[in-house]
Amino acid sequence: MAFLVDGQTALVTGANRGIGKSIVEALIKHGANAVYAAVRDPESARPLVEAYGDRVRPVELDLTRPETISAAAGLARDVRLVVNNAGVLKAATARDDHAFESLAFELDANVFGLLRVAQAFLPVLKANGGGAFVQLNSVVSLKCFPQFSTYCASKAASYSLTQALRSLAAGDGVEILSVHPGPIATDMGHDAGLSEIAEPPGLVAEAIVAALAAGEFHVFPDSMARRIGGAYDSFAKGVIEAEMGEG
Description:
The protein is an alpha/beta fold. The chain has a single domain, classed as NAD(P)-binding Rossmann-like Domain (Rossmann fold), CATH 3.40.50. It contains eight helices and seven strands. The protein has helices at about 20-30, 45-50, 65-75, 100-125, 150-170, 185-190, 200-215, 225-240; strands spanning about 10-15, 35-40, 55-60, 80-85, 130-135, 175-180, 220. A seven-stranded parallel beta sheet has the order 3-2-1-4-5-6-7, sandwiched between helices. The longest helix is centred in the middle third of the chain and has 29 residues, at about 100-125. The chain is globular. The two termini are about 30 Å apart. The model has no long low-confidence stretch (mean pLDDT about 95). Pfam families: adh_short (PF00106). GO terms for molecular function: 3-oxoacyl-[acyl-carrier-protein] reductase (NADPH) activity. It comes from Tautonia plasticadhaerens. Belongs to the short-chain dehydrogenases/reductases (SDR) family. Its EC number is 1.1.1.100.
């Protein structure tokens, strides 16, 4: 089912920089009435407020602090679009001594954080007559890159949960979108050593808006993502997106 951004109120986690900032800008460009910029430090969203005025509403939200998520959901009662963009990366291979520490850190934000946001905001979307919930999952949710073993594992888990949310939220009129970018020019991409092959974050933002309008479940926004997505497409449509009985 199509979801048009025009005239809607949205919330974007990790909105102060990188992909999140580009998503806020794209939503406003495409006619969103207002966007809650959900960030750990609301002051970090000041440049967005200076650019767009009261169409941007900073709100505190930390994926690892459930009380901030509950408070944000209580404040943003008018949202019909939630984009869970925030996430963390702490590079570790499966053989590194710090792999356990890295995985625990990434699971808390990337997986438990998704659950916290979904459980807080899906009831809000339902109460508002439906809407859309977007999860940033990455191509590494499909293909493990060994130097980022723990991060890939956390994103694979978040992708699995996103599939579950798609089925669970369908009866509430909530569309779910799973976004799978490749290397993107963000601080995280730079820190991971991917700057030379990274593409602009605006590609992700525009792809999200287009995929929502088309009623799609998967979106692969950049060059690497499209290569992986093209190979994955038949499985995605025949298995992931198909209605299949349990057992």
